[in-house]
Structure formats: structure tokens, C-alpha cells
Design goal:
By secondary structure, the chain is of the alpha+beta class. It is about 50% helix and about 10% strand. It has a 4-stranded antiparallel sheet with strand order 8-9-10-11, with helices on both faces. Bound molecules: zinc ion.
Length: about 550
């Protein structure tokens, strides 16, 4: 009978390992049994595991490697005639040069250029030679690229876009040896063993290096002071758990040095599905490094998963992101998940929205979607973000460039009210929407009245009153807010709509009504340049 190993879910990091192990074996065509809280593998699956391990990374991530990039560039250049090549020569050539200087390519570069640091006067023949050499060493290069290199002395990963070195001290990555240890361990008589595995409780009999191969965690002894180091040496794990932890990098989705693991652990099935969706999102549409956002991946994965699980009760989800040498943890509570689900359209309308601010000579770029997601993950409301977007739009300064319109800001108002008021059922969603949409309409109506009297009102009066209202909102000063509303309506000679006075109820309502009102007040005629569902279809 084949010996089987059952591996149960535990904390987030172990779970990432379990998902990683599943991914590696599944990719290799092995049939892994999935229980509710465990996976079960046959001991035979450990044969050639090292190969399966690296193949998983190589084949999953090839599209986002330097190897892929350099091959594309070579193919472009090779297929041009000399004159054409000269035109787009330099930029592409510099890129190729840069890549060839990275450690996985060092050998090849030396072979071709005899220690010259750059190549000049490159002709088709040389380009083809490079291509041929690269093709010959494809697997070796890709493997090196995926592993990267953890620099123990500097305690950082040396290859920004590598994968494994973000999670594991690559100097301590010994797959084959650990697989053998697992096999030996299973055969051993463990009745005399006196220690317990820190993770799974299996009996063990000796100390090794514990969990110190895991980076950026409590167990990362390289980062800790000596007394903690002394403490953590007490932590020992069995070979099976070590083997699972080695698979952590395969459980995360890691693109351009940014990682994501969604610890949605209702069941193993769910955990695997959610993270597979995230991986497909991340690698499905190739984005450039600047456009890549773990937030977008997370959001799309969660939305897809929640559409498939509509009949399931939502559950809190733990999200772990790896960025800039650190793990970042957040919880998406089930209430927040509901808001995300009910505001999906509004949220996705903000996908490519940005503002940029000129700092001295450089433009600093801010993605509104990332801002919004950071707020959601950290449990902040959207008032500050709405405020910013309104001010930037009204300011019309040369130092600020924006690509959004008031429809986008309106969508943010809707997301915000859903977040603040909750969306326990469809009636509530509708009620929320109606409230902000009414407040916006009043603002829009006032705007029209101003413009009727003075077509230039946009440049002076409307801006002036907007600033004053925003100022009142920022300081949550309902008196100042109402004072400005009253004088505005006196100016156009009309009575204040009753609903606006709801703003006096409390600070939250002041923000909800107030910001929607100012959005409408600046709300243009909605024949906007960005005609991508700016939220104008809810006019009723
Ligand atoms: Zn164990």
C-alpha cells in the first residue's frame, strides 16, 4: 500500500505552504486529494520533487521574467532590416545590455563579448548568437531568475523581480535533502522520540535549524537580537513541516517582487480556488511593472470568488501582501466584503483613475484605486480621499493633473456610504444610493441656477462656494456648512431642500450629504471625456 501524508491547515504561512505544495504537484500532473481541512499526498509524489518544484516556478512565471523580455526584444531586432534597426536600436539595445548584466546572464555575456562590458555595432549575426545561447540555457537561466539570491549579510533579496528569495533564505533551500529526510522520517520508529514538532505535534528527536530559513517572520533569526535567537532555537519542526514551508513561495502569487496570498481558509478547496483565481488574474493580462497592482489582483479574485459562492455566507478573509521586504497583513471583514460585492461596479470604474502632483521638477503619480483599496483594507472611510479629489479638480492648478470627472467622485461617494452605513440587504443598497444621489442632484441644480445667471459662474462663484463648503466639511463644522448653503439658496432665491438638513443629524451624515452635494455642484454636464461608466446612469 502506498504511504500517504496528510497535511492540515494551520496559520497563514503554513497555509501558503500547503497551497504551494498543492500547486507544485498539481502542475506536475499529480493527483492531490483535497479534504476539507487537509491535503493528502502519496509518498511517491516526492520522487523528482525538486524538478517539479522549479518547473512550477519556471512555467508559471516565464511571461514575467527578464528572460521573456530579452527574448522579445531580440526577436524584434533580429526581424528588422539594418536601417529600421538603427531607429529603435538604442533603447532596446540598452535594455538587452541591462538584462545581460544580471547574475543569471553573466556567463553568457562573458562568452559572447569577451569581457567587454557593453556590446557595440551589433549586427544581426551577434543578435542571433545571443538568442541561440539564451535558448540553450533557458531552463538554467529561468531557474536562477525564479530563485533570485538572498544576501545574508545585507539581509535583503538581491534580485528585485525574483520569487523564492522573497520568502526563503536561498542559502538554506535544500529541497532534495529535505525530501529524503521526509522519507527517512516516515520509516523511522518514533516511539522513543521526546520532542514535539512546533507546528503539527509529530514526535521528533533532534534539533536542527528550526524555522530560521523563513524570511521576514518571527522565525527569521537573521533579523533578531541574540536573546530571541536563543529563544527560537527551541522551536523545532519535523521534516514534513519543513518540506511544506519550502513551498511557501509557490503559495503566494509573486509578480515584479510583489506578493499576495489570500488566506481564505473556510476550506482547503476555497483556499486553493481563491489563490488560483488570484494567480490567473495576475498572470492573465500582462501588465507593465508600473501598472501592476496587487490591489487589483486581490479585488478581482475576491469578486470572482464571491460570485461563485453567492450561496455561501461570507467570512472574514486574511490578506497577506509581500512588498518592499516586508509582509503586510490585513483583514477583510465580512461586512467589508459585502460592501465590495455591492459596490463592484463603482469600484471597478476607478481602476485607471489617477492624479499627479508636480514636486519640484518631478511628477508624483497617485493611483486612486490603490488609495481606495488601501482605505478599504485598513478600515478607513473615504472622506479624505473624496475631499482630495474634489479640491484637486476645483483647484485647476498647473501643478496638478487629474484624469477623473465628477462621475468618478460620485462613485466614490456611493462606495463610501455603503461602507459607512452597511449593505445588509438590497433595500439598504438602494436607500444608500438614493441618499447620495439626491444630495448630488441638489448640488447640480444649484450649479445650473448659478450658470443661468452667469455663464462664467464656474470660474468664480461656484469655485468660491465649493471651497467654503469643503472647508466646513473638512473641519466637520455643520454650522459653517449650513450657513454657506443658506446664503447660496438666498442668492438664487429658492428654498433649501429639506433633505439637505439631514446633514445636521451627525458628523457622518454631514460628510455623506455634504460631499455628494459639492460633487454635484462641480458636476459638469456629464458629456465627459472618460465615458466609462462615470456613474451617470443612476440619475432618476
Ligand atoms: Zn510537523
Amino acid at each position: 500500500m502506498t504511504e500517504k501524508i496528510r497535511i492540515y491547515l494551520s496559520d497563514w504561512q503554513y497555509n501558503a505552504g500547503v497551497v504551494g505544495l498543492y500547486n507544485i504537484l498539481d502542475h506536475a500532473g499529480d493527483e492531490v486529494r483535497i479534504g476539507d481541512q487537509y491535503i493528502e499526498i502519496d509518498i511517491e509524489m516526492l520522487e523528482n520533487f525538486e524538478e517539479k518544484y522549479f518547473n512550477y516556478f519556471i512555467e508559471t512565471y516565464e511571461k514575467v521574467t527578464d528572460y521573456h523580455k530579452i527574448m522579445n526584444k531580440l526577436n524584434i531586432l533580429i526581424n528588422l532590416d539594418d536601417e529600421q534597426r538603427l531607429k529603435i536600436y538604442e533603447k532596446n539595445l540598452n535594455d538587452i545590455n541591462k538584462i545581460l548584466k544580471r547574475p543569471p546572464y553573466e556567463e553568457i555575456r562573458k562568452r559572447i563579448f569577451d569581457n567587454q562590458s557593453n556590446f557595440k555595432n551589433v549586427n544581426k549575426a551577434i543578435l542571433e548568437k545571443i538568442k541561440k545561447e539564451l535558448e540553450k540555457e533557458r531552463n538554467k537561466i529561468l531557474k536562477k531568475e525564479c530563485i533570485g539570491h538572498y544576501n545574508q549579510r545585507k539581509r535583503t533579496s538581491r534580485e528585485p523581480n525574483a520569487i523564492i528569495d522573497k520568502y526563503i533564505n536561498t542559502n538554506m533551500l535544500h529541497i532534495k535533502k529535505t525530501c529524503n529526510e521526509v522519507k527517512e522520517y516516515l520509516e523511522k520508529d518514533k516511539s522513543n522520540f521526546e520532542l514535539d514538532c512546533f507546528i503539527c505535534g509529530n514526535k521528533i528527536n533532534n534539533f536542527g535549524k528550526g524555522l530560521s530559513f523563513l524570511l521576514n517572520t518571527f522565525f527569521d533569526t537573521n533579523r533578531k537580537l541574540s536573546h530571541i535567537w536563543n529563544f527560537s532555537i527551541d522551536i523545532e519542526i519535523c521534516p514534513i513541516c519543513k518540506f511544506v514551508y519550502y513551498c511557501v513561495p509557490a503559495g503566494f502569487v509573486t509578480v515584479y517582487g510583489k506578493g499576495l496570498f489570500i488566506n481564505s481558509n473556510r476550506s482547503l478547496q476555497d483556499l486553493i480556488k481563491t489563490n488560483t483565481t488570484a494567480r490567473m488574474e495576475a498572470l492573465g493580462i500582462l501588465r507593465s511593472e508600473n501598472e501592476f497592482s496587487t490591489y487589483k489582483i486581490l479585488m478581482n479574485a475576491i469578486n470572482k470568488q464571491s460570485r461563485q459562492n453567492l450561496h455561501h455566507e461570507l467570512q472574514d478573509v486574511q490578506v497577506i501582501r509581500y512588498d518592499d521586504g516586508k509582509y503586510r497583513f490585513n483583514i477583510l471583514s465580512k461586512d467589508v466584503l459585502k460592501v465590495i460585492r455591492e459596490s463592484e461596479e463603482e469600484i471597478s470604474s476607478l481602476m485607471n483613475i489617477y492624479y499627479k502632483i508636480k514636486q519640484k521638477t518631478k511628477w508624483e503619480y497617485f493611483n486612486v484605486y490603490d488609495n481606495l483599496m488601501a482605505n478599504i483594507l485598513n478600515n478607513y472611510n473615504m472622506f479624505t480621499l473624496i475631499h482630495k479629489l474634489l479640491i484637486f479638480k476645483i483647484a485647476e492648478s498647473d501643478m496638478i493633473v487629474t484624469n477623473y470627472h465628477m462621475g468618478h467622485v460620485m462613485n466614490l461617494n456611493i462606495i463610501n456610504i455603503n461602507y459607512l452605513k452597511g449593505v445588509e440587504n438590497m433595500d439598504k443598497v438602494k436607500e444608500n444610493r438614493e441618499l447620495v444621489s439626491k444630495a448630488r442632484k441638489y448640488g447640480y441644480y444649484l450649479r445650473q441656477k448659478y450658470l443661468d445667471r452667469d455663464p462664467e459662474a464656474d470660474k468664480n462663484r461656484i469655485r468660491g462656494i465649493s471651497y467654503r463648503l469643503l472647508n466646513a466639511l473638512k473641519t466637520r463644522n455643520s454650522e459653517m456648512f449650513m450657513h454657506n448653503i443658506i446664503t447660496s439658496y438666498m442668492y438664487i432665491g429658492e428654498i433649501i431642500p429639506k433633505n439637505i438638513t439631514l446633514a445636521l443629524e451627525n458628523e457622518e451624515m454631514l460628510g455623506i450629504i455634504g460631499y455628494a452635494f459639492v460633487t454635484g455642484l462641480n458636476g459638469g454636464d456629464y458629456k465627459d471625456e472618460n465615458n466609462d461608466n462615470g456613474g451617470e446612469n443612476d440619475e432618476n
